[in-house]
Amino acid sequence: MSNHTDTTEPEEDHSEETFSPEPRNVILTVPNAISVLRILSIPVIAVLISNRWLIWSLVVLAISSASDGIDGYIARRFNQVSRIGQILDPIADRLLIICSMLALGWAHILPWWLLIAVGSRDVIMLVEVLLLSDNDYGPLPVHFVGKAGTALLLMSVPVLIVADLRISPFFEVLHCAGVAGAIWGAVLYWVAGLIYILQGYMLIHRGGEGRSGDGIVEELAHAE
C-alpha cells in the first residue's frame, strides 16, 4: 500500500490582482481631481476648435485623453476607485463628444445633422435616466455597442481636426474617414440607445412582478 503524500501546493488566488477594487464613497481623491480637470478642459477644446486653432486643440485634446487613462490607473493601483469617479468618467466622455462635435459643426468641419443625431440620443437617454430614478432604479449597465459607438465618436474628433489642416490631398481622404467614423459611431450610439430604451421599459413595467431589476437587465443582456 502506497504512503505517497500529495505535496502539490494550492494555486494562489490572483483574483485581487484581476479585478478592480470595490468603489468607495469618497470624493477627495487624486483620480477625481484629474477627472474634474478633464471636464474643465472640454470647453477650452471646444473654443480652440471653433476658432480653428487646430494645433492647440490637438495638444489640449491629447492631454485630456491621456488623463482619462491616468486617472483610471491611479484609481486601481492605489485603491482610490470611488462611486463619484465612476459617474464623472462617462459624464466627461459625453461632454467631450457633444462639445467637440458642436465646435466642429460651428467650424463647418462636421455636418450639423450629425451633431443633432448624437445630441438627441443623449437627451433621450437623460430622460430615461430620470424615469428610472423616479422608479427607484439606478443607471443601466453600459452595453458593449454603446462603448464601441462612444469610442468611434471620440476617435473621429482628432481625425477630423488633423484632416482640416489640409496640408496635402491625403487630408481630404482623412476627412472622409473621420466623417465615416463619426457616422458609424452615431449609428452604434443609437443602436445602444434603443437597447437601453428596451431595457428601461422592461425594467419599469416588469420590475414589480416579483423579480429584481438587476435580474431583468441580466436576462435581457443574455438574450442579446
From TrEMBL:
One of its GO terms (cellular component) is membrane. Keywords: Lipid biosynthesis, Lipid metabolism, Membrane, Phospholipid biosynthesis, Phospholipid metabolism, Transferase, Transmembrane, Transmembrane helix. GO terms for molecular function: CDP-diacylglycerol-glycerol-3-phosphate 3-phosphatidyltransferase activity. Gene3D superfamilies: 1.20.120.1760. InterPro entries: CDP-alcohol_PTase-I (IPR050324), CDP-OH_P_trans (IPR000462), CDP-OH_PTrfase_TM_dom (IPR043130), CDP_ALCOHOL_P_TRANSF_CS (IPR048254), Phosphatidylglycerol_P_synth (IPR004570). It is found in: Membrane. Residues 1-20 are annotated as: Disordered. Its main location: membrane. This is CDP-diacylglycerol--glycerol-3-phosphate 3-phosphatidyltransferase. The chain crosses the membrane at residues 26-49, 55-74, 95-120, 140-161, 173-198. It is a multi-pass membrane protein. It holds the Pfam family CDP-OH_P_transf. One of its GO terms (biological process) is glycerophospholipid biosynthetic process. It comes from the Bacteria. Belongs to the CDP-alcohol phosphatidyltransferase class-I family.
